[in-house]
Model the fold of this input.
Amino acid sequence: MSGTSGDKVLVTGALGQIGTDLVQALRERHGGDSVIASDIRESSGHSSVEGGPFVILDVLDTDGISRICQSEGVGTIYHLAALLSAVGERDPDLCRRINVGGTISVLEAAKECNLRVYSPSSIAVFGPDSPRNATQESPLNPTTVYGETKVTGEALAREYLERFNVDTRGIRYPGLISYKAPAGGGTTDYAVEIFHAALNEGHYQCFVRPDTRLPMLYMDDAINATLSLMDSGADDLGDSRSGYNIPCLSFSAGELADAISDRVEGFTCDFVPDVRQEYADSWPDSIDGSLAEEEWGWTPEYDLISLVDEMLRGISSP
Ligand code: NAD
Ligand code: AKB
Done:
């Protein structure tokens, strides 16, 4: 297949937590018809399905990706299909197959069809030997298979950029907090579930200790960061473009529960750690995103209080 890069956008894993918000933001920017949402599963009534074109697409199907990109005139892929840490650690082979295999598949299609690729990384690239405030250059020795797949994903993105001139970019997202879609099976899911439990049941049983402190961000900030990175001139981006640390919040599960208790009368939370505690303990408390700030000038808008207010408002709105 010969490559022609068009104006349209393809999003893989579009029915997930990030895809739900990102597809909406991209459709507001480019128009509904220009953003093709895709996922391996059908979900009628979902905003990514209803608001514009939607196709069933397995990210392991390189030819299928290339065919859609060629026939629809796609120029950019936002590659969100993946298994997150909790689900991934339950089935490491599947996690490697989808996360690494899916990324290779997307990059191969991008090479063939001359596409730009946004492929997210994660704070899970860091392991227990990282400083508690991980910098861009801190060592990448994750102890989760999910984290390994993210380190490999960054390396693959660099390789396709250097060898084949594929324009690849990515952010090491922290735990993302949003209300439009459920969290997709990660360790940081407690920071989403707690809001729904507070409003629906008045109580949450949190699966990490109250002193568990992780990098976090409200979804609107994560979407803005993503679009801002993709809008940046290639000349502004340095060697970290396949996995930027970005400036984020950092708070403990206990601080989050307290901020919700201050606003939801009678809300109680208890803490019963499970295996996900181990994954959380292997990740840094916070990350230093100063390089992203320097190179493409991005900073978040939401702090813990405004994030909690927005989450409670969003879940309560019909
Ligand atoms: P999610 O689990 O909510 O969504 C992933 C989507 O991928 C799902 O809708 C699923 O059906 C789809 N999918 C799974 N296998 C597929 C396949 N073979 N082909 C096509 N689609 C498939 O995940 P998310 O939270 O939206 O995360 C998106 C990306 O961002 C992932 O790479 C994840 O590692 C990364 N990330 C997310 C967070 C976060 O807090 N949400 C944090 C760091 C990094
Ligand atoms: C997870 O918890 O697996 C994700 C992530 C930080 O990558 N939210």
